[in-house]
Structure formats: structure tokens, C-alpha cells
Amino acid sequence: MSMETENVVARLKSSGLFRTKGLIGGKWIDAYDGKTIEVYNPANGEVIASVACMGERETKDAISSAHDAFNHWSKLTAAERSTRLRRWYNLLIEHKEELGQLITLEQGKPLTDSIFEVVCGASYIEFFAEEAKRVYGDILPSPMPDRRMFVLKQPVGVVGAITPWNFPLAMVTRKVAPALACGCTAVLKPSELTPLIALAAAELALQSGIPPGVLNVVMGDAPKIGNSILESPQVRKITFTGSTAVGKKLMAGAADTVKKVSLELGGNAPFIIFDDADLEAALKASLATKFFNTGQACICTNRLLVQEGIYEKFINAFSNVVQSLKVGNGFSEGVDQGPLINEAAVQKVESLVQDAISKGAKVVVGGKRHNLGFTFYEPTIISDVKNEMLIARHEIFGPVTPVIRFKTEEEAIQIANDTEYGLAAYFFTNNIQRSWRVCEALEYGMVGVNVGLFGSEGAPFGGFKQSGLGRECSKYGLDEYLEVRTKHTMFFYFRKKNHTYKLFHLHH
Ligand code: NAP
Fold first, then answer.
1. 429-453 pLDDT tens trace
2. Which pairing describes strands 301-307 and 185-189: parallel, antiparallel, or unpaired?
3. 46 assigned to active site
4. What pTM was estimated for this model as a whole?
5. Are the C-beta atoms of 34 and 52 separated by less than 8 Å?
6. Four-CA torsion 135, 481, 157, 118, nearest 10 degrees
């Protein structure tokens, strides 16, 4: 282990945050057969830790503890749950530096971005700790005079949460916080590539007084864990962030036990720049929206659509800034772009770039592996891309910007919508009528109009089409963890009789 890694690990160990076992019923547990998997630093291939590699038996036990804990946790008042969640938020913020280091170690992103992820991930807990107290019901007008109808919102039960590696903390808290706030309990399966930050967060949940069994963590054999969650009648909800391919399998698997399903899946975000746009603003926003997290975010620009009148000018200006991006180990000072997550991710990027070049696209900047080696790839711009090319149809998940030229607004909308995805879209224009027209014509769950990267715990997050089902964050995100119970009841009222009040049924 390098000195850098040793220092980060030593610091985490001293706060009890370096956990390598699964968490079941409040106890840190090895895989029952003793199997482990290694976690690597994507920047240099170094092994950071060996963690428990769990499967079916551990998942079943985790589900049972979550089921037992539900009985108690769901009956606490919203305020009691809120206090514990708030403590969890405070602890994450208190430890944001070392948690940020842990994210950089196992995921690779620059340290400032990792610390930002901790703050952002914590903000979901803070938000839902507050929202826990605002799960309101309804009183409805009855068709019968002697009846009343009430709507009660109640926790759905045990939740299975499966999360990816690209935002290994924020994707966890975005699911677990609303689930716990509503009174649900959870079995979390983080990605085997980045389990350490999820385990550290679970340790802090325990320290904050969230009772044993309310949050359980199992990792290892993804299909076995996933199937055990899907098959269990005790799990009433599955929430997943990851690829569309796995999301479809989970959706099909949830049918047997008719679970509630939320899916945050892949994207193919268009970023459209019209001739009348503020070019300076569009340039800054497109840079951030593409290269954030080395392009490994579901809302990263996947296709840059530039109108013909400004096409050359924009590409020149964009090339200058992209060339100046600093690539390196996330721990190095001033780094803008870290490594990709693993070799398979680099190979995917390489094959998409090669396919585009073979079909007539041109490399303007980058276009190959970075001389730092390992999983580093050069920040890249490819021009003359057509929407039929693989690079414009698949989620690139890397630091490559394919640029497509368009002539008219109608053509831009047609190209933007010509995909099975519908997560995030962006466009820049100074024409107010166009800003409304285009926004409503884009088949996307989230649209940035003259803004780039967005995201807030208070705004619904999610996609149309094959980008997913349901919404996370905001008041809409809470409903995903609630059942609606309708109570029909007889109506009684008091009538004064002989100076005493008595209960009467309306017909008496
Ligand atoms: P992935 O391969 O689908 O993995 C996501 C999670 O699913 C991981 O925990 C993975 O476990 C697990 N998994 C894989 N196969 C499984 C199976 N058969 N049953 C149950 N679980 C299974 O996706 P990824 O590469 O980690 O993440 C990148 C994807 O996530 C991209 O498509 C991105 O767009 C999407 N994403 C979407 C959003 C959004 O909000 N829409 C946000 C972030 C990311 P292992 O890693 O342990 O194999």
C-alpha cells in the first residue's frame, strides 16, 4: 500500500469508519463462507481492502433483520426518526474530509468533488429528516352522509436498495434517507467496486442511533443478492440506480411478488446550443456538464448539438478549454479529471471512439488513453458525429464529447428525442419563445434551460422512457416509499340530551 493510501486508511480506522464486513442486524459480519473480494484504487490499480463477498444466505438474514426492525422503527413518531436522521447528517458533515478521501481512493474522482459528494449526499438526509414530519394524509368528501373517508400514508415496509459506483455515497443516501424517514427499513447493496464508502456511511448511521436492523448492508455476488431481494415477499419495494439493462431485469424480477419499483437508469443527454445562445455561458456549462466525474454521470452530456451558424466558432473555443483540463490522481492538487472506474470502462470508450472515426467522425482533441496509464483517458472532442453512430446511441460514460451539427430547431428536437433514453437534456438560447417551445418538446424528465449541471435534494430527479420509473428527491421522492391506505368509517357526533353529551349515530 502506498503512503497516501496508508494515511487515508489509518485516519478512517481511527474514527471506526474503515469497515470491510457486511452489516446485518447491527453486527458487522463476514461472508458465511469466508469469501472476500478486493477493492481497487482506479488511479493506480492498488488493492485498498478485501471486503466480505456475500450472497443469498446473508441477504436472506439481512431481509429478516430489516423485517423485524420494521415493527419498531415504523412505530416511532416522525419526529423521533427525524432526530436520528439529523444526527446521521451531522456525523457525515463532521467526517466529510476523511469520507471524501475514501471516495477518491475507491472511485477516483478529484478530492474536492468527493467532498462535495459527501455534502450533497448528506443534504439528502437533512432534507428527508425534515420531510419525515410532513407526511400528510387527506380527508375526502364521502358519498354517504354517515360515513367519512380518510387517506393515511404509511411506510411500504422493507426496501431493497441497489446502488452504483459513480456516486457511491450520494446514491446510497438518496434512497436510504427517504426510506428511513417514512418508517421503512432497508437492505442496501452497494456496488462491489465502491463498497467502502457505503459501509462507512452505515457505521455513522449506527453511531447516530438508528437502531440495529433498520439499515443492513450486503455486497458481493450481485445477481444472487438481487435475486434474493426480488424473491422475498417481505421486501415490498425495490429501488435501483444503475444501467438500463440491469434495471429491466429487476423490473421483470419484481413482478412475481408485485413489489413497488423505482428505477434511475441510464441517459443519453443532448446539450443543444442554438445560434442565438450566450456562447460564453454555453461553453462553461457544456464543459462542466460533460467532464464532471470524468463523464461518468447519468446526466452528463452524451451528445453536443451545435447549430451550424456557430459550429466552427464553438468547436474552436471549446477545444481550447478542453485541452487545458488537468488529468491526474484525484489526490493531486488542481486536478479536473480523474481516472475511469476500470479497464472495461476504458475499453468501452475506446470502441465507441473507434466506431465513430471509422464512420467519418474526426478527433478534434484527445481521442486516446492518457499517458498516465491505468484507466486514465484524455479529455476528448469528436466532431462531425451523426446521430446514427454508436457513440451517439450508447451512454459513453467517459470524457468524450461527440459534436453533432444541426440546421433548424425542428431538426435539433428530432435528433435529441431520437433515443430510447429520456433523463436529462440541456439547451442554450436567448429567445424566450424558443425556450418554452423546446423545453416542452424534449422528451426528458429534467431539462436545463440556459443552465448546465443541476441537482438539488428539493427537486424531483428521474427520467422518461427507458431512463427509469419514479422520482427521487423532493416531496415526490417520498411517495415512492409510502403506501396509501384509505380508511372508510362511520360518522358519529355528539348531541346534547338532558344536559349531557352523548354519542349518536346520524340515523338515531
Ligand atoms: P450497473 O452495472 O447496472 O450496476 C448498478 C448496481 O447493480 C451495482 O450495485 C451492481 O452490482 C448491481 N447489479 C449488477 N447486476 C445485477 C443483478 N443481476 N442483480 C442485482 N444487482 C445487480 O450500473 P453501474 O455501471 O454500476 O452504474 C452506471 C449506470 O448507472 C449508468 O448507466 C448510469 O447512467 C446509471 N446511473 C443512473 C442514475 C440516475 O439517477 N438515473 C444515477 C447514477 C447512475 P456490482 O457493481 O456489485 O456488480
1. 999 999 999 999 999 999 999 999 9
2. unpaired
3. no
4. 0.96
5. no
6. -100
